[in-house]
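Table S2 (continued). Query chain:
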Amino acid sequence: MSLNDPLANTLSKMLNAERRGKKMVVITPVSKMIKSVLSIMQDNHYIGAHEEVTPEKGGVVKVALLGMMNACGAIRPRYQAALEDYERFEKRYLLAKDFGVLIVSTSRGVMTHAEAKKKGIGGRLLAYCY
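Corresponding output:
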């Protein structure tokens, strides 16, 4: 397995496990960004709880799967999205308006595109999930 994009590896591992009907998946290596993406996915009810098994650098996280993901993936290259660009990227990566989330890294942390719209800030696109 190539570790060129750990976020993409994490999302594809979760999606593959979910498609096979697994209830739990173990993710390694884990960074702060991956943990924040997992938290956003949990807040939006795409995955269950995630528990950090080993807290050191490059640790291990167990993620409970709920069977709610249809598709998810990392966005490469990490496009810069201004406030007025979110709608264009929604059309590109999501099936329909208000169906799914784009996960964005902003100057105020990692959040969904809907939160970033409310706060009026742009950022870099990290991932999508629906």
